[in-house]
Amino acid sequence: MAWVDEAATTLRGAGYRPGAAGQLVLEHLAAQNCCVGAKEIHDDLRRHGRTVGLASVYRMLDALSEQSLVQRVDVGDGIVRYEPARRSDHHHHLVCARCHGVAELEGCEVDEWLGQAAREHGFTPTGHTLEVTGLCAACQAA
Amino acid sequence: MAWVDEAATTLRGAGYRPGAAGQLVLEHLAAQNCCVGAKEIHDDLRRHGRTVGLASVYRMLDALSEQSLVQRVDVGDGIVRYEPARRSDHHHHLVCARCHGVAELEGCEVDEWLGQAAREHGFTPTGHTLEVTGLCAACQAA
DNA sequence: GTCAGTGCAAAGCTTTTGCAGCGCG
DNA sequence: CGCGCTGCAAAAGCTTTGCACTGAC
What residues contact B90, with CB distance under 8 A and at least 6 apart? Predict the structure, then answer.
């Protein structure tokens, strides 16, 4: 099932009924492969002629976040980013401590360990973020 | 070597010379085992009669962050938290998507995989954060 | 004497909240 | 008809920046 559909269904199940604005945000998110900020989404939609309130973007992101349909990604530049939580395309991030640049790190080998460890705490995991801090190639050279 | 000393040394090496305020922030951080926010640090120091500017706290955190001496922790409530990056006491977090509560998850089994994967990207890792999102026991029951 | 760190105050930005309007059930 | 999503505008924080001051080299 495509992420958009799954998201819409889950949201509806949670009593949230996305309207026009919500649908646009959803579709825009689905088109992203890596993290985007709220303002970025808002600007992009506007640029395409879609009138969407910034507040609606935030509201939608909140709802999605609560259902674990998106993952928050904190790069360290003060802007909160989100990315669709797909089972496929599950990846992590290499975040440079100097320039705050982000690179994707494919693959993930923590799921099993994590799931078990979390459940031992009575916690039901629905996803996770893993950010590696360090220095990117460019900043090392500098 | 204690974290405070290592931090002070590293900072000095980076050309940053912590004064009275910096020292206080450093010591306060060292006394924490889990994440604290900037404002929290500021308030605590004030409460103990130490006059430290909020700006100094942020400046110190920035410097520490750039040297990877602290780890940013994003819980999802809009407040950026930091915790000292010690080799011992390396842990991760279980973050509830509903109530934003945080629990510690001891242990870490990703270092080896991570180090190698990161280096393949020309990235030099100095640390990492791993946040597990899901539902805490309390929110599941509700 | 110079230069970096500091505190205070003001500014900046992202994010949140309030409120009237509109559309879908 | 009612309830909830929407947009706009205003408000609320957290964080950053500017500036004069102080202390260390």
Answer: B108
